[in-house]
Amino acid sequence: MTDSIQDRQFIRHPTDMPIHWHLDDVALPGTEYLRNISAGGLAFLSRTQVPEGATIDIDIPVQKPEVSFQGVVIWCRPGEDGCFEVGVRFTDAGTQFRMRMVEQICHIEQFKKEIQEKEGRTLTGEEAALEWIRRYAKDFPR
Hints:
The protein is of the alpha+beta class.
């Protein structure tokens, strides 16, 4: 399966947000991390190979309660450091809406880190959200 930018329906946003996943009886202790996320799906690094076509349950602890959804594994390929990169497609419109919220939270968390690194300011989640919205929300893809 090719995965060129021209073939993609949704813009991908890089992130390092932690996730938890499970597939029937397969669940990993600890945390995996998102590689990127879009309105149509996500990719994450896993220490375990995940079968293509499998229905997967994913929890993203970006807010309380966690964002939870099901998706379908559309690819799994060798990644870095002996891990696998896993691509998941969302299966319903409700998930796609929730993931738009997660996309924004990922942007805000990245913004907090950048402000800390570049300006030495430590922002609370609320301060970062307000500043990010003021600066960037108008340009956030719909």
